[in-house]
């Protein structure tokens, strides 16, 4: 590519006017030129002296995977507390919460057994919360693409078999999150539906559009009314292979061995840090990500990035000299992945203490290049936030719209009725390639994309803290 | 991340309404619901049966780097012709053009010579078009961050030395292309400015914000009025190291050895494919990328992606049954990187044949997730294109604004005055990490991001072809 010489800046020490100052929205007196300048200051701090990338390098590289109840999750709690303390927040504390403790165990193996009894290894992983197989579990396989299709099958076609849920992502959907939403019930409820029809286990196509040999884990559920059967994810290539071989030989068997198990609950913590509001200290604005991660990789995009961005958002405001008028609270929630115990505990404590929560924000969609914010609020509040869109336009985060905000902050809605739940929204084309798989590693995170996200979050906090809702 | 169950689609075979049909813009009768549906059809074809990704795999993997004049560039011409023929275009042909032929040669080595004469290897690469060093070239080093600073230095501080241009990207700029524009004159004119003051060579900090050991090449120029001196890029880490060591020891020397050379010009080609317009066959809309690439990697994002997207854009319209009313011409331009001979030849032939060019589009900014289009046109034409923005909103390409369109189509402006030059614009945060370096490889390209880009380009061609300008 040859960029034109005309774009050259003769004075590179100056940010061009177009970037220095966003047009002030037509909303009247509620935001002004000073806001545009303040936000530019936030971005200068993030892009020149940002700390989130190095924080993430430590969290993912030195601690790594941190499933609830694991020693690494406990190390991450300590890391979060220290990192907030170093950032100079006014208050840093922990919230105790009991969490599930599931472990994958050493054995995890799947084989397609061909006509002559020869096993073909395929890439599988246990789904989170699944029981183990208690040795080897060998059975026939019946493939379906929906629960409806399963329900229509005669009993003898299912009984004693693995049910293989193989509905792929709908690639036509522009938003991969929509494709995920259209497929993920197979992972969540597959074992229940399989057992209900007499199946001995669930084999689930991985939740991704990517075609590769990485199985994607994620949580599954049981229902007390039906027997518990083991559930595993197959990589998309393994699922394609199993489907192909089943067409040639509907009588083939699958052998699954998994030593995963659910251990007694463990004590763990949310990590909380505050900047106390200068004018309205009792009005609280929360920003957070979840500290726990799945165990197959480093939990980089899911959700190490949300944690370091949340800490960074408060640090940026402090470093930029923008003392918030309302109290800002960065929260690293524990146990989003398999229980949401941290999110529920946070909401429960807020209700018990009768706290006044103005708004809560979460970053849990990966730290890719900015798009905007998803808002759960009344139409009037959504509109108010949309009036700030011009301030976010130079930073590619002006797409402010109704949408899912975040799993950890959701319980706050019922508990203390904040006026808005807000999800920071980055581009998501690459997210489900990595999500819950061995690929969710630090090297997949781009320094500037991460920093731009944290700065956009800080800018939103600045406006919320200054103007309220 | 836990996406809400509420997002699940119970009928995954249906694209949700919000994605099926974009709001029709308020511009009146010029676009309608049929356009929205036609564009959705284009995206279905791209996302379900797209061919651009596999085409790119072949071009980058089987042919690879293809600098003008190289055997690989000639193979790429053949590949382009065959790929267009296979796509069933109405006409496929070549346009002959003479191109520069620069070769890197086998020797390429840079060393910082410390106080005791010990050499420290650092990552360097010759800049394109540079002369070689004719053996080893050892000299002192003077560091500057601007041409102004160089001009102010006394003669004896520069004479006989390497001039080390070490102005970094301005990381505060949100658009990396702006940071590139603010730094790239060092690469383009560094050797001229160094030689003008008696310097023996130019050492240039690589054009990237990334901190790593990959030197980034790119073209440089000479001026007949001053001696030609060799020019090399240092990786950003090498530049940081050289700068640090110079502070401790301003008398240190640098030793450069490069066997690059400029060979006689070679015959090469643009590759052109057409879909003939059904109503206005003489009104031409061009879409293209450049077929040549730098020699350090595979030329994936720069600009293999623009080539396969341009071919794909026409193929999508054909496959979707959307026969264009005006003639669409996909062009793979030769020699963008070090001469723009292909772009100039294309414009020259258009003028000679008195062709009627309505508009021209280029994709040469990498195939990252879509943003929109950059337009060079009259304000009225820019406004007309902006009225189509709602049709692009569901596909993340609604940011339609004035801006640089593309180097290869630029000569058309003077030659035949098309009403608009349009640059397809993807996100650019990651682009300059790879650009002109060994990292510009196929694995850095995301299938869906590539496909979404080609489909957005096809949608724009569909509207231009239907409505004119």
From TrEMBL, chains A, B:
<keyword id="KW-0865">Zymogen</keyword>
<keyword id="KW-0256">Endoplasmic reticulum</keyword>
<dbReference type="Pfam" id="PF04389">
    <property type="entry name" value="Peptidase_M28"/>
</dbReference>
<keyword id="KW-0333">Golgi apparatus</keyword>
<keyword id="KW-0862">Zinc</keyword>
<dbReference type="InterPro" id="IPR007484">
    <property type="entry name" value="Peptidase_M28"/>
</dbReference>
<comment type="subunit">
    <text>Homodimer. The monomeric form is inactive while the homodimer is active.</text>
</comment>
<dbReference type="InterPro" id="IPR039866">
    <property type="entry name" value="CPQ"/>
</dbReference>
<feature type="domain" description="Peptidase M28">
    <location>
        <begin position="270"/>
        <end position="459"/>
    </location>
</feature>
<keyword id="KW-0482">Metalloprotease</keyword>
<protein>
    <recommendedName>
        <fullName>Carboxypeptidase Q</fullName>
    </recommendedName>
</protein>
<feature type="region of interest" description="Disordered">
    <location>
        <begin position="1"/>
        <end position="29"/>
    </location>
</feature>
<keyword id="KW-0378">Hydrolase</keyword>
<keyword id="KW-0645">Protease</keyword>
<keyword id="KW-0121">Carboxypeptidase</keyword>
<keyword id="KW-0325">Glycoprotein</keyword>
<keyword id="KW-0458">Lysosome</keyword>
<keyword id="KW-0732">Signal</keyword>
<keyword id="KW-0479">Metal-binding</keyword>
<keyword id="KW-0964">Secreted</keyword>
């Amino acid at each position: 590519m040859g960029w034109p010489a005309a774009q050259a800046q003769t004075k590179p020490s100056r940010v061009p006017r177009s970037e220095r100052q966003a047009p002030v929205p037509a909303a009247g007196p509620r935001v002004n030129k000073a806001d545009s300048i303040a936000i530019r200051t936030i971005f200068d701090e993030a892009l020149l002296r940002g700390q989130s990338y190095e924080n993430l390098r430590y969290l993912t590289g030195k601690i790594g995977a941190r499933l609830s109840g694991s020693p690494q999750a406990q190390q991450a709690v300590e890391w979060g507390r220290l990192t907030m303390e170093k950032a100079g927040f006014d208050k840093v504390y922990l919230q105790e919460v009991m969490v599930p403790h599931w472990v994958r165990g050493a054995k995890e193996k799947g084989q397609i057994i061909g006509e002559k009894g020869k096993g073909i290894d395929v890439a599988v992983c246990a789904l989170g919360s699944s029981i183990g197989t208690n040795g080897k579990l060998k059975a026939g396989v019946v493939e379906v693409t929906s629960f409806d299709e399963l329900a229509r099958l005669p009993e003898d076609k299912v009984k004693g078999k693995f049910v293989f849920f193989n509905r792929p992502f709908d690639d036509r959907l522009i938003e991969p999150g929509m494709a995920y939403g259209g497929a993920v019930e197979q992972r969540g409820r597959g074992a229940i539906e399989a057992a209900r029809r007499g199946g001995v286990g669930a084999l689930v196509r991985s939740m991704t559009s990517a075609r590769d040999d990485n199985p994607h884990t994620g949580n599954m559920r049981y229902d007390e009314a039906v027997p518990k059967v083991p559930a595993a994810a197959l990589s998309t290539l393994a699922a394609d292979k199993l489907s192909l071989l089943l067409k040639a030989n509907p009588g083939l068997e699958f052998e699954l061995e998994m030593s995963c198990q659910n251990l007694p609950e463990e004590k763990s913590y949310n990590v909380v840090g505050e900047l106390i509001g200068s004018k309205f200290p009792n009005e609280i604005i929360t920003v957070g990500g979840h500290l726990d991660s799945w165990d197959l990789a480093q939990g980089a995009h899911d959700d190490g990035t949300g944690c370091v961005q949340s800490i960074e958002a408060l640090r940026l405001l402090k470093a930029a000299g923008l003392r918030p008028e309302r109290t800002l609270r960065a929260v690293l929630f524990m146990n989003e992945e398999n229980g949401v115990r941290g999110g529920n505990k946070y909401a429960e404590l807020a209700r018990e203490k009768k706290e006044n929560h103005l708004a809560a924000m979460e970053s849990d969609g990966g730290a890719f290049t900015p798009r905007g914010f998803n808002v759960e609020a009344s139409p009037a509040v959504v509109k108010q936030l949309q009036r700030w869109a011009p301030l976010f336009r130079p930073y590619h985060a002006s797409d402010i719209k109704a949408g899912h905000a975040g799993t950890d902050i959701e319980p706050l809605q019922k508990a203390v009725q904040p006026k808005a739940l807000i999800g920071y929204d980055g581009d998501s084309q690459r997210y489900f390639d990595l999500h819950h798989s061995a690929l969710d590693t630090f090297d997949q995170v781009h320094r500037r994309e991460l920093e731009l996200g944290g700065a956009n979050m800080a800018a939103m906090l600045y406006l919320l803290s200054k103007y309220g809702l």
